Amino acid sequence: MLRNTDTALQNNDRLSDLETVFQQLVLLDRAVSEEDIQDSLNKLLEAVGKYTRADRAYIFIDVNSDKIFSNAYEWCGEGVIPQIDNLQQIHSYDMPVWYDRFSQGRSIIIENIGDIKEIMPDEYEMLKVQDIRTEISFPIYHSSKLLGFIGVDNPEISESQSLISILEVIGGHIGSSWALFNANKSLREKDDRLGENERALEKQKKVLERLCMDYTSVYYLDLYTDEFEVMTLRDGSNASSVLKDEKITKFSELLEKYIQRYISEESADDLMYWLSNAHLKELLSSRERGIYRYTSRPNSRGQKYFEVQAIRVKQDEREFGIILGFRYIDDIVLQEQERQAELEKALAEARFNNEIISAISKIYFSIYRIDLPNDFCEEISGKTDIHRLTGQTGSAAAKMTELCNTFVADEYHDTVMKFFDLSTLPERLSTDDTVAAEYLAKDGNWHLARFIAKNRDSSGKVTHVLYVTALISAEKRRELNLIILAEDARRANEAKTEFLSRMAHDIRTPMNAVGGFTSIAMANVNDPEKVKKNLEQVEIACGYLQQIVNDVLDLAEIGKGKAKVHNEETSISEVFADYEETIRGAMPEKHLNIVCRKHDIIHDCVLTDPLRLRQIYMNLLSNALKFTPGGGTVEFEIYEEELPEKGRVRLVSIIKDNGIGMTPQYMRVMYDRFSRAVDTRLNKVRGSGLGLSIVKELIDLMGGHIEASSALGKGTTFKVTFELDYTDRKHEHKHECRIDGKYDECIGMRILVAEDNDLNYEIAEELLKLHGVICDRAENGQVCVNIFRESAPFYYSAILMDLQMPVMDGLRAARLIRSTDSDYARKIPIIALSANSFSEDVKASLDAGMDEHLSKPFDADKLLELLMLHKNK
Asked: What is residue 826's three-state secondary structure?
């Protein structure tokens, strides 16, 4: 009994859902807004979904009629995840079978998804990922056009037979309702546009009426038919009398009658031509408007000057419509005639007043005509392009005194007063036609004052002159700049000459040491201790020569703008530790007190160029060590300061010593490229004189700041600051080779050395042989590639590659080796050995696939360390 009751209730619910379906179809027909349609369709889907006991009911629409369907409406049962956002832009080729059936007006009923795996593979995959087991879908049609489709996911098909039979009707009904709604919507939009057009037309009509107030008559003319329409016609106008007396339909006829009555014979032909249909077509085909002026017989108001404007309105195959507007311009013509008369009068006056000064009118800003015998002067205005008499007259001598006192700077006053002395002027102009003087004005500008002989008496004595003044500041400044540039060039030349003299001395000194100690060693080959001592001195001299060369090359790179900053994650602690160890071990014979302090390192890992940073520290610390006497103190301090900007920190480095210090005079030029506080020809402290220049230019390149304080005999302090980005990631410290004074791990290594120079190869071979390393030679890059490719896997432990070689250079050779398809070619260490040591050279080596770059002359210990490092990798 209870079961029967439950079944009856379920049947009642299903009947209620079916009634809802039909109710929503009725409401869909009555919808007057998009909101009504959306509400009806959502309720319709809910009723369909509940009736079929489905998980989800949906509607897809082909919005743009391009066979691309999007899920526009969706109903989901309790606990079912909506899919509408995932089912947009589904192309017909994503569901080819469904689209084909829908196009034929057929439905889709799937009782078991497994049944369609072979016949509908694309649809099967799409349904499977949505966990759909059963499916019912029907096309939405109107007028044989597929608009979309409606369907349900996972319905109870056995319970849905009664609805299946009417789903086709539902699809067609929805299509018809959509079409009807869109048609009504389009009709309403057209009505709205029509109302807007009517209002715009009324507005334009009012504007046109206001514009036509200035015109005696306005016509709309079709140039193809010669038919016209009167838009405005003022009473009393000439045209109104013509139209009043005769019935005229063609504009050419009106024009002919108008010209006969009111236009003089000399003007008739021109007006007839200009207003002819042929001319107006030609004129307005290429432009929007045309204007023509003419004279008529006076009308009843006495108006005789007229202007006609022709404006193109419409031009197509059927109509060439223009507006012709006629207005009187007697007042405008009168104003123009008055202005023309004024201009002609001014021009005549200008010609008269510029007879003498026409050639110099654009040069001088002040001009006076002076009568010397009568001590009379008259000013000529120079404030405009047309010079004319201003009416200012007076004593010439008094005017010269006034000009001098008013304009001339104090330091030139006496000299200019002598030049302005008119009593001596005839004598000064006895053999010349002009005399001139330059002076500095009180406003800072330079002036050129000039007297020009105008008239002479019968004896040749000057009686009348022109006094003119020109502004020559630009020329004078160029002259002064050339003098300054010449002086700067002279000083720079002297500085370079002095620098080269010192540099020649600095180079000759170690070269002399190399030659001398080598000779001593060769003379004492049987005394190993003496040979060793002399060779150590040779090594020191070579190191100094290399420092000079490196400084010059660094500065040349910066000067040419080739120096680049390559920022990377850098450990401040690691850089500090490197230089703490370096300076503590430097110059032990001087017994310096070395103080190194690192504190307040908030963020150890910063983004900067570690190579440039090390160059800066090395130059400043090297100077401190060199210029601090034995027993003195050198301090190296480094710390960080917080910045308000997130992710940035200020790095502060201080290098301080109590050495010889610098004079204020030297500090003003200490960053110049060729400056040095001491002369190595007189002082035994060596240096290229380029260190501080390199430091300053590198700091500027990196966006930093340097400050210096020093006192002679008390020492020097440099403070360097950089504002850097930081990262809180732990910096990966580079693997350090185990160095205990011996390189046992290198014993037995076989190295392929690509070197075209016999002497360079012999040096490398001998140095490496001392540590048990076997060398094979390749005379150029091509030979190197051939030997490597013919060798057995891992026969060679590394390749030393010179960059500049005949036949094939080192960069191309390295690329060819790396391109060889073998693990051996990919892993073998390739170390560049080159005299090219600029940063771009290092980058080129690394880009070519090399692992390291050493500059010649190379440090054997550094090379052996690199060999051990790559072996341990």
From this structure: helix
> In 3D, which of 325, 259, 328, 257 has the Cα closest to residue 291?
325
Q: b/e string for 358-367 if b means 16 or more Cβ within 10 A?
A: eebbeebebb
Identity at 522, one-letter amino acid code:
M
Q: How far apart are CA 760 and CA 779, in angstroms?
A: 11
Structure tokens, 800:
């030393």
Q: Judge whether residue 388 has pLDDT over 80.
A: no
DSSP E strands in 5-80: the ranges are 56-61, 68-76
Three-state DSSP at 522 gives helix
Torsion of CA 475, 476, 478, 479, to 10 degrees: 120
Contact of 420 with 457, CB cutoff 8 Å: no
Instruction: Report residue 534 as tokens.
Output: 């002399």
752 pLDDT more than 50: yes
Virtual torsion, Cα 66, 70, 73, 76, nearest 10 deg = 150
**What letter would DSSP give residue 726?**
B
Instruction: Report the Cα 94 to chain-centroid distance in Å.
Output: 45
Parallel, antiparallel or unpaired: strands 568-571 and 633-642 = unpaired
Q: What is the 3 state secondary structure string of 438-478?
A: EEEECCCCEEEEEEEEEEECCCCCEEEEEEEEEECHHHHHH
Residue 811 has a pLDDT of: 94
Residue 477 pLDDT class (50, 70, 90 cuts): confident
What is the value of pTM for the model shown? 0.36
Lowest mean pLDDT among 214-218, 359-363, 491-495, 515-519: 359-363
Cα–Cα distance for residue pair 534/540, rounded to 1 Å: 10
219 three-state secondary structure: strand
- Cis peptide bond prior to 528, omega within 30° of 0: no
Q: Which residue has the tokens 């890992």?
A: 605
Structural contact between residues 654 and 718, judged by C-beta atoms closer than 8 angstroms: yes
Inter-residue contact 476 to 446 (CB < 8 Å): yes
Sequence letter at residue 807: V
